[in-house]
What does this fold into?
Amino acid sequence: MGISSYERQSTREHPLCQLPEEDLDFVLQFVLSSGSLKEMARLYSVSYPTIRTTLDHVITNLQQRVDGAPPDPMTNLLADLVERGELKIGNAKMIRSVYRNALEAITDKEKPQ
It folds into this structure.
């Protein structure tokens, strides 16, 4: 493995260390289960699609930290609702899409012409 730019930073600055504790726990279990989503679903007593959504949520959180972007509260809320079984994945994706389109429209209006 090559030396990453994160190796030159302090441990606290590493994107993994910036994740919420529940995401870190998920990453730990994911690695310990050799990346098996089937095993993760069994460990968490949830369906495969639910564990896949959880993984996608963790990946998004991690990517935001790598990119230096602040966490998106709407995406986090939707992911939490899906994980708790209070919202279906398809509905969450639709809501997120509408939300992002609305944000883009607002941003476009604020740009100087």
Observations:
- The radius of gyration is 17 Å.
- The chain has five helices and no strands.
- Residues 78 and 93 are 8 Å apart (CA to CA).
- The mean pLDDT is 83.
